[in-house]
Amino acid sequence: MRSTDAASEIPLHDPLFKLIRDLHIKDVGKQIGETLVMLRDERVRLKENPPSDSLAESKVFVRRLLDMQGSEKHADTHTLIAEHLMSFIRDDLRYSTFPKLAIDIVQGEYGDRVIPQLENLILEAYNPLIVLRFISLQCMVTGGFKNATISTYERLFIQSYGGYYMSLWIKLQVTGLLWERNGKIKCEYAPFDFQTACHRMSCFVDEEHSAYGTTAYPYNGYVPLIVRYIETGIRNNWRDWTTIQSDDHSTMSHGTYSIIFIIGGVTQAELACLRKIRFSNKLLVVSSAIITGNKLINSIQ
């Protein structure tokens, strides 16, 4: 958390955090509210039913009281965090539109034309890292930009941010996150055909299949490709995957672990999706980093 003076870290390993960590943001407030009601009822019960003179009953009462006080403290912490987030969104109303913008881009709503909302963000000199995240996402989804689109974005970007961030623009081109179809700049890696992969893996599902408990729930109807690939591996018993499992142990009992290594990093939302997968045994996900969009762009910068 960050105040006007300094940043502070709060450990989030309490039972309430485990309840809300994988929730879609629209359901977090509801869960915290239900927890507060439960704690209020527990306090009333303790007040109406004090312990007798029995030592055993007194110990149980004290333990329940301490547990309730600890839960109240955790609820206060998460309420405070939620208030900070809502305050941030109220101060920057544009930020609340970004999740829908991202989903619209991934679904290909804009094609490879200049997106008016991104154009306005650039003209307002909004956070360049966020702007570049959306432009790179659109470029990946469309399989590269036509010359007119990338030229317009580049011209607007230079006008608003100057030469300092232009070096980051070029680095994104070199790394294959921003490119012109049939352009002169050659990427170090071949561009990824996102649309084909997304369609083949059925990454978008209807409302019926995005309910709580499904892998599509955390993103409210979208399943990340990494999650779909892992689901496929489970269904075909990891056929064609590089594993360290010998042929003599093709069946996995509930008491064993599957360890999945994700190279390059994984997001908290992707982890939330992975925790919704039904594994035949226990799952351990190992990755080189917990990443966000800003961390990815900053690592290139």
From TrEMBL:
One GO BP: vesicle-mediated transport
Gene3D superfamilies: 1.25.40.850, 3.40.50.1910, Syntaxin Binding Protein 1, Chain A, domain 2
InterPro entries, alphabetized: Sec-1-like_dom3a, Sec1-like, Sec1-like_dom2, Sec1-like_sf, VPS33_dom3b
Sequence similarity: Belongs to the STXBP/unc-18/SEC1 family.
Protein name as it appears in the record: Uncharacterized protein
Protein source organism: Brugia timori
